[in-house]
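Hi support team,

I submitted a single chain yesterday and got back a structure, but I'm not sure I'm reading the token output correctly. Could someone confirm the output below corresponds to the sequence I sent? I've pasted both exactly as they appear in my results page.

Thanks,
R.
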Amino acid sequence: CMKVCTRFTEEIFSFLISIIFIVGAFTTLIKLYLADPDVEGDDPAAPANRAKAFLGTLLGLFTYFTAMWCRAFPKRNETTPLVRKLVANYGVTLSILLYSGINYGFRDVDVPCLDMPDEIVPTATLNGTGESRGWFVNPFGDETASGYDTPGVGFIFFTAVPALGLAVLGYLDQNLTTLLINRKDHNLKKGGAYHLDLFVCGIFIYPICGFFGLPFTHAATVRSMSHLMSLMTREDSKNEHGQTVSKVTNVVEQRVTHLGIHCLLLAALGLSAVLTKIPK
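Hi R., thanks for writing in. Yes, this is the structure output for that exact sequence:
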């Protein structure tokens, strides 16, 4: 099926992912002005709300511009090539750390930060008790705080229809991301594992997420491309029209960084107090 996907299909998919992230970023900024109705007016809370919206906007914009400046840093002549590459690879992380520190300096301005739970428990609570539901999702249903039962046996057949759409979306997301990674101009030596990836997800990942009520995994297109770019070595050359183009000369293909990334994600579970200092 993926053989019929052309470069045009890849570009459309990349464009869609970009639009989703751009809209999400601007939506977060707009909410700063709409969440509190007293941003304008003579209400005593208006100055604090204006300060929160203004500071949140500055933090968001300058985080973006600093990350883009770091991305273009390898084209400059300052410092050594290794330092320039490190700054480019970790530009987003450095920007987030920098402006999170600046936001911490303005603690009296209540800029919304990440919401992190104090303990690792299911977020759904049982109706009338306030207690979290069990880890295992009962297929016969449990009464939750919303007043509705969790999906019972009858809902399994009902949700099978929209689940087909999710299956198609998951298939395209997984395989198109793999297709983007395995472009010919990336000069990768190891082949793609399209069927193996879906086999692992279908046999292990998705059943576990379903029975425990966990969010489904996804291909993480942006993170995957950023990881690939950090492992690339590129060089500029002239094409037949005399234009300067950048080509990939080598990619460090290994599994160590993948393992390190997910170990850090696991370690982040114990850093909820720190993550709550990062502005949304």
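A quick pointer for reading it: The first helix runs from residue 7 to 34. Let us know if anything else looks off.

Best,
Support desk
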